[in-house]
Prior knowledge:
α8 packs antiparallel against α9. By secondary structure, this protein is mostly helical. It starts with 8 loop residues before the first helix and ends with a helix. It is built from nine helices and no strands. The protein is elongated, with a radius of gyration of 23 Å. Belongs to the cyclin family.
Amino acid sequence: MSVYPSESHHLKEWVFGSLDLLKTKKNYINEKAKENWKDIFRQISSENFEINELLLTSKDEETLISYYGRQLIEFCNHKQLPFVSKYNASILYHRFFTNQSVMDYDPRIIIFTSISLALKLEEFGLHFTLEKLFGDVPGLNIQEVFRHELTVCNTLKFHLYILNPRNTLEGLRLLYKKYYIDILVVDENLDNNDHKKTENKKNQLISLLSKVILKAETYVLMILHTL
């Protein structure tokens, strides 16, 4: 019997020991894709030209992945999707391009495929259809989005379980409330003014905590863009 979460594929397969290991893997994916495209160019053309000038470097890919990762977040914000769906979509997107190259798969399609899968993972997909969610995106082929779902799942080996920091943040909020905010218990012997001051203090702390949680969520999403 596995011990949660230490035996989960989230930690076994998708947590790298260092950024250098992650960069090495991405460089390998980039070189592999370039070799495949070089073979294709040789088969379709006998002209002598510098093929490398037509292909992307690992740095080029990193720039594109980061850019469209931000577009994914902006789209989720525009559609007011839940944080958990936004986070999961971003994770799926970055996991996919840890194992695939943008020279082989269009990130403009993969960002929407990742969003679609993320909504289904949390059953938010029951409240949306692809046409309703993506219908106002100019030039987007919704059938391509749907067709790439299996491609993304296969690339990720169907490792769709994601440890979400929102649960940890919510636990932190509850502990904070229990061990700190509730210390400010209203004393029955206090007069009305003291009662009001104490209640105001509690409300201020609750408001401050909500802002801290929101900033923490934003920080988590920002980290994803640096990978």
